[in-house]
Amino acid sequence: xxxxxxxxxxxxxxxxxxxxxxxxxIQKEDTNKLIMNFLVTEGYVEAAHTFELESGTPPGVDLxxxxxxxxxxxxxxxxxVEEAIERxxxxxPEILEEKHQLSFHLQQQRLIELVREGRTEEALEFAQxxxxxxxxxHPAFLGELERTVALLAFEDARSCPVADLMDIAQRQKxxxxxxxxxxxxxxxxxxxxxxxxxxMLVWAQDHLDEKLIYPRINDLVSGELVEPPADH
Length: 232
Known about the structure:
CTLH domain-containing protein, CTLH/CRA, Ubq-SigPath_Reg, LisH
C-alpha cells in the first residue's frame, strides 16, 4: 500500500480504540467456558479441576475420562502403539471398529516403530499380515502403504526418500488423529475454540488494515494494543 492509500485511511488513536473495545460487553461466564473448553480439549486435567473450583465453571465431562484419553495419546507419542490400541479398546472398542482410516494409521505407526527399532524381519511379517490385507480392502490406503513399506528397502531408513515417516511429527499426527476420534466418540469438540478465535482476530485485523490505521494486537501472547505509528 502506497503513501497516498495510507493517508486515505482513517486514523484511530489508542484512547478512542480502548473506549470502543470497553463498550463491547462480554460475560465472564462465556470467557470461563472458553478457558474450560481449552483445558478439557487439550487434556489439562489438574488445571481444569483447579479452574472449576476457582471459577465454578463445570467441565461438562468426566475429568477421569480425560486422563484416560491423555494416557492413550501419550502412549502413541512414546511409540507404544500397542498399548494405545489396548487402552482405546478398553475405553470404547467401537472407535477403531468404525474408523478404518484411523485403525490403518495406528497399524502403520506400529510398522514404523518396528523399523525404528531395527526389527526388520518382524516389520516385514507385520506388513504382510496386518497392513497388506487392509490395503486390499481399502484401495485408498495403498499409497500410504507403499510409502511405509518402502522403509524396509533401505538400510538406513532415516536417510531414505520416505524418512519423514520416521520423524516424531508422524507420531504426533497419529496421536492427534486418535485423540480427535476419542473426543468425537464422547460427543466433544475435536479442537478447542480458543485457537479458532485467535485466527479470527488475525483475519479481522488483516481486513481492518485496508481501511483503518488503529492500535493492533501484534503479540497474541501478551494481547497488548500497539499505538499506530505517527504520520510523517
